Amino acid sequence: MNQAIKRSIFRWIHIIFAIPILGYIYSPFDKIPQYAPATRFVFVPLLVLSGLWMWKGHLVRRLVSRKPPQQAAPAGV
Question: Which 3 state secondary structure label does DSSP give 71?
């Protein structure tokens, strides 16, 4: 799977999990308690994680890669 497809998948996940949050914000006031737990504990964390992954995922991948970082040659050699 190439990087463009992965980016597209994360972008769509981010958009899809934003839709229930918009419904929570614009729903009638008496319906909010029904949506609150799912919004707080499912949709917002997934939205935050997918946003952070799209923003700084390249750093996370670099941190968890199995290859040790290459060290520069000493100066003057």
Answer: coil
